[in-house]
C-alpha cells in the first residue's frame, strides 16, 4: 500500500517475491595490528587473526591488503568493496610508509641503496623516500615509503642490502596516519580521512595514467607532504 513505512529490523520487504536487503552503511576502520596476528578473518592453523578485533561490531569488515604476521601497525578494514578494490588495484598503489628497526646501522649507504632501487627476484623495488630515524637505544631505524604491495617486499629489500629487519611497523597509508593508537586498538576513520584517502586514490590513478603515456614518474613524486612519524 502506498504511504506505508517499513520498520528496520522488524519488517521484511519483498520485491517480485524476493527479499529486499537493506543498504548497509559504508564504514572504514584503522587497526594497529600487533605482531603475531595474521591479516585474515579465519586462519586454518588457529593463529590469532584480525577477527579478534572486529567481532561484535555491527558491520562485516574485511582487511584491505596484507600486513604479514611478524609486522605490525596500520591496517585498514572496511565493508566498502569499491574502496578496497581501488586500494589494491594492481595498476597503481597509494603510498605506504614503514618504519624498520634493523640489526645494523641505518647508514648513508643503506639509504642510497633504497633510493636507487633494490633489485629483487620479482622486480626492482623503488622507494619514494628513505630516511634515517633517531633511536635512543642505538639501533638502526629507517623510515621508507613505497607505492606497491608485494609480499614481504620491505624485509626482502633490506635483506638484499645486508640488513636484517628486527621490527617492521606500517605507520601510514597515503594520508591516513597511525599516530599514537595503541596496539590492538581500532578506530573509525573520520570523514576528513576518508575524503583525503579518496583524493590519494584519484592521484594514484592519475599518475598511473601519466606513466602509461609518458613513462615512469620521477622517484619521490607522490609522497605525502607531511612525512609519517613513528609512534
What features would you highlight for this structure?
about 230 residues, Alpha-Beta Plaits, 9-stranded mixed sheet, disordered C terminus, 5 helices, two-stranded antiparallel ribbon, globular, about 25% helix, alpha+beta
Please name the fourth-level CATH homologous superfamily of the largest domain. Pseudouridine synthase I, catalytic domain, N-terminal subdomain
Structural category is alpha+beta
> Main sheet, how many strands, which sense, barrel?
9 strands, mixed
Oligomer: single chain
CATH topology-level name of the largest domain: Alpha-Beta Plaits
Name the CATH class of the largest domain.
Alpha Beta
Distance between the termini: 58 Å
Task: Give the tally of β-strands.
Answer: 13
User: What fraction of the residues are assigned to beta strands by DSSP?
Assistant: 15-25%
Which spans of ≥5 residues are poorly predicted at pLDDT below 50?
218-231
Described by the principal axes of the CA atoms, the overall outline is globular
* Average of the residue pLDDT scores: 86
Q: Please, how many domains? A: 2
Number of helices: 5
Specify the helix fraction band.
Answer: 10-25%
Q: Rg to the nearest angstrom? A: 21 Å
Second rung of CATH, namely the architecture of the largest domain? 2-Layer Sandwich
Order of helices and strands: EEEHEEHEHEEEEHEEEH
Amino acid at each position: 500500500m502506498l504511504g506505508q513505512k517499513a520498520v528496520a529490523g522488524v519488517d521484511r520487504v519483498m520485491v517480485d517475491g524476493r527479499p529486499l536487503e537493506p543498504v548497509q552503511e559504508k564504514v572504514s576502520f584503522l587497526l594497529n595490528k600487533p605482531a603475531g596476528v595474521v591479516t585474515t578473518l579465519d586462519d586454518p592453523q588457529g593463529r590469532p587473526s584480525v577477527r579478534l578485533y572486529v567481532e561484535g561490531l555491527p558491520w562485516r569488515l574485511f582487511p584491505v591488503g596484507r600486513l604479514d604476521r611478524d609486522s605490525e601497525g596500520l591496517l585498514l578494514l572496511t565493508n566498502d568493496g569499491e574502496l578496497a578494490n581501488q586500494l589494491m588495484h594492481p595498476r597503481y598503489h597509494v603510498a605506504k610508509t614503514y618504519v624498520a628497526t634493523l640489526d645494523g646501522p641505518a647508514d648513508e649507504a643503506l639509504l642510497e641503496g633504497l633510493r636507487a632501487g633494490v633489485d629483487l627476484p620479482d622486480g626492482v623495488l623503488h622507494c619514494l623516500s628513505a630516511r634515517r630515524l633517531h633511536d635512543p637505544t642505538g639501533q638502526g631505524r629507517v623510515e621508507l615509503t613505497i607505492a606497491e604491495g608485494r609480499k614481504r617486499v620491505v624485509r626482502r629489500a633490506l635483506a638484499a642490502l645486508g640488513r636484517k629487519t628486527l621490527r617492521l611497523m606500517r605507520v601510514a597509508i597515503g594520508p591516513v596516519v597511525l599516530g599514537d593508537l595503541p596496539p590492538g586498538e581500532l578506530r573509525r576513520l573520520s570523514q576528513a580521512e576518508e575524503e583525503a584517502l579518496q583524493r590519494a586514490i584519484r592521484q594514484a590513478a592519475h599518475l598511473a595514467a601519466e606513466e602509461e603515456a609518458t613513462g615512469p614518474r620521477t622517484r619521490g613524486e607522490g609522497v605525502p607532504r607531511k612525512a609519517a612519524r613513528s609512534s
